[in-house]
UniProtKB/TrEMBL annotation:
This is DUF3618 domain-containing protein. It comes from the Bacteria. The chain crosses the membrane at residues 89-108. Keywords: Membrane, Transmembrane, Transmembrane helix.
């Protein structure tokens, strides 16, 4: 400190400057919290993220079910292989119908969700 008090004035000015900066930052935070457009934008972004996540999970689940059904149909076709050799037309029609049914069900379920 100096004898004429200029050190105190400089310190006070610096403290006032810091207080103004802190006040400005606080006001910006409060304004951001009270901004309805920003709140709606944030909510919309969260909703989009949830929808994308659900869509990805649903698509994966449908693909898994379709693959499982296809394995089942292939296994059944393999088991019936001997009967197909004797009379192939009815079994081929049944197998084709089963595959078409599985594909149609997968598409319909995919569109519902």
């Amino acid at each position: 400190m100096t004898g004429n008090g200029t050190g105190d004035v400089a310190a006070l000015r610096e403290e006032i400057r810091r207080t103004r900066v802190e006040l400005g930052e606080t006001m910006e935070l409060l304004a951001a919290r009270a901004d309805p457009k920003a709140l709606v934008r944030h909510s919309a972004e969260q909703a989009k993220a949830r929808v994308r996540e659900q869509a990805a999970l649903t698509a994966a689940r449908v693909r898994g079910r379709a693959a499982e059904r296809a394995r089942l149909v292939r296994a059944q076709a393999y088991e019936k292989g001997g009967a197909v050799g004797r009379n192939p037309l009815p079994w081929a029609a049944i197998a084709a119908g089963a595959v078409v049914t599985v594909v149609v069900l997968a598409i319909v379920r995919g569109r519902r969700r």
